[in-house]
Amino acid sequence: MVASMIDMLALTIETFRQYSIIFLAVLIMLQGIGIPTGLSVLIMASGAFASAGEFDIFLLFGEVWLLTLLGDSVGYWTWRQFGRFILRTFPRLQKSLDPKLRKTGIFFSKNGKVAIIITRFPLSALGALVNAIAGITKYRFIDFVLTVVIGEFFWVAFYLGVGYWFGDAWETISDLITQFGMLVGLIILLLMVLYFSYRLLSKKRSS
User: Fold this and answer.
1) Contact between residue 128 and residue 8 where contact means Cβ atoms under 8 Å apart
2) Is the pLDDT of residue 138 over 70?
3) Whole-angstrom Cα distance, residue 186 to residue 177?
4) Residues 6+ apart with CB under 8 A from 114
5) Cβ(132)–Cβ(34) under 8 Å?
6) pLDDT tens track for 76-104
7) Which residues form the VTT domain (predicted)?
8) Mean pLDDT throughout 186-196?
9) Residues 68, 154: contact at Cβ < 8 Å?
10) Max CA-CA distance within the chain?
11) Rounded CA gap, 7 and 122, in Å?
């Protein structure tokens, strides 16, 4: 299992080196609509290649940043246009999710910008899910894009910068960041749960 994942990663990186920005664009679009592609590892690898002189780091940064904005926008509009249709196709799923989506829509109207930013970085694994929720609940697109611009800037700067700075050692650093990122993500999620639980209890007591 591990060996096959390593082989897949090696194939992905080699394909990127051959087709560069075109291949990267495809992966970013897929990730934007919710298909996992291991994009953060590839961005670190591209930073390492830039460090070796294969790419211009500033041009690469601009291209990746722009593509992530497009990818998130594609994800948003895909779910905004077809999300309800997908739910209607599965009535049981729609019945289960509709009440949750209404509550989520209320949450997004108050805390959408925070949710979008932290799911670009550091909780990037949840980014596609938030794209879908923002689209289905028809969160204002202009607010979505302006917030994504900020969040994706930090995401691209971090992963591209790590690859560029550590160069050939990027694979070792990638493993450490993945483990550390999971820990940070769990801590942030726990803090969010505690915060909103506290707010809910405070409202119940006041009422």
Assistant:
1) no
2) yes
3) 14
4) none
5) yes
6) 999 899 888 877 787 776 666 666 676 66
7) 40-164
8) 62
9) no
10) 63
11) 27
First-residue to last-residue Cα distance in the chain: 54
Rg (CA), the chain: 19
**Span 52-84, pLDDT tens digits:** 888 888 998 998 999 999 999 998 999 899 888
Q: Which residues contact 96 (CB under 8 A, 6 or more apart)?
A: none
d(CA 207, CA 201) in angstroms, rounded, equals 10
For residue 155 the two structure tokens come to 């995401």
**Residue 24 in 3-state DSSP?**
helix
Residue ranges in 33-126 assigned as alpha helix (H): 39-51, 57-89, 91-118
3-state secondary structure of 133: helix
Report the chain's mean pLDDT, rounded to a whole number: 76
What percent of the chain is predicted at pLDDT more than 90?
A: 16
d(C-alpha 103, C-alpha 95), whole Å: 14
Q: List the structure tokens of 141.
A: 């697109």
CA distance 15 to 11: 6
Q: Which two three-digit tokens encode residue 96? A: 């289960």
Would you give the DSSP letter of residue 124? Answer: G
How many angstroms separate the CA atoms of 119 and 150, rounded?
A: 11
Tokens (6 digits) for 10: 């090696």
Cα 133 to Cα 57, 130, 137, 142: the distances in Å are: 33, 5, 6, 15
